[in-house]
Amino acid sequence: MLHCVLINEVIVIRWLNDVNKKSKPKTGIYHAPWEKSFDKILTPFEEFIHRQTTSGLLLMGTAVLALVLANGPLASAYEHLVHTPIGLAIGGWTLEMTLHHWINDGLMALFFFVVGLELKREMLVGELANPRHATLPIAAAVGGMVVPALIYYAINPDGDAALGWGIPMATDIAFAIGALALLASRVPKALITFLVALAIVDDLGAVMVIAVFYTDTIALVPLAAAGALFALLLLFNQIGIRKTLPYFVVAVLLWYAFLQSGVHATLAGILGALSVPATPKYNPERFSKHIRELMHRFDASHQPGKSIMTNDALRAVVQTLENGVHSVEAPLQRLEHIWHMPVAYLVIPIFALANAGIPLAFDSLGEALTHPVTLGVSLGLVLGKFIGITGASWLVLKLGVAELPKDTRFTQIAGVSLLAGIGFTMSIFVAQLGFGGREDLLLMAKTGILAASLLAGITGFIWLYLVSKLSR
After folding, report:
1. Domain end residue (candidates: 310, 326, 342)
2. Rounded to two decimals, what is the model's pTM?
């Protein structure tokens, strides 16, 4: 037995040595198989699209899981977990909410923070920076908000159901871009850029609607405190503070002030993002000079055969290089890069898991699908988005105040308007605010959102597939 074990150990050691010899090139760089992808250099926009695509698939998986949990043997445990109270206590101060509220009011503030960063970047250097380029997505987004709201209100003009008019206004950026990215080899890149700009303006409109129309009571003292904290963030920006920690601390206090004021706390995410500096400490010329000097010191400090762990001078240069890289990046860029992944891969899927669990009664499914709230939401998202986005785009193009994105046809804009009917995350979020006290109407609204998102995704994909095939 011992003899067999020794033979096996010798075989394993020889195999590992062979692997090391094959995986250690003469350049002095070791690559594990999964590390080779890190050699790829992606532009910020390509990285954004890649993450949104993955987030869309993850979001779809968690939404299905939530439906399974809400309609299976674990339904009661799932409901109990979502409504479990969780509190923080420091001395006599306490803050207690259910897990559901912590997710919707707390974690989603991070989602809106990333949305705010994306919005500010787009307005400064992106598609919304050029007025002629920005006119089309802005007009399309406005049309895609107004028409769905009107369709919903026409079906539900009074009563508690009328409070849901803001539900079909929103577009789910992760799902919509994920669906369009599946056609990336067939559609022009400018079409994806158009959808990104449209969805970001759409999110901004949804935030404004939440702040103005979905606030019940306002406490003036906390609201005044929130205004003072936001002014402090803007002061940080003006006096040139580039460290992110002061912004984070004040933004947390801003979130708490909004939570106490009655205005939805997620607004703190948007305002916090808008205060983040968009100018770096170093300009490219100074950074280039600084890096060359550091690389000269790096080469002079390098000792062949000696590990960097035992070479203090080399380690100091490497640390200074890292600081220099952060200084040539705008804090806006850095925070968007840092937070986009946890928000896309954790916050949004957790939100879907907590909110997409809809009990489905198949014997009354027909009645649910014909309920006025369900019809208003589904028709608003599918038909309203299509009419609003396509119609507004046609109008501004006809008036000559906008132009089609490069290599894009108007029929492709129409296809994107269908994909914009995927309103999952933001629509569910608004539904929670509008129907928080009416579980029956909330259930109908979620049913309409799921049905419309599925229909919009399938029809938009097929439309763009057929149109893009003809254009090629």
Report:
1. 326
2. 0.72
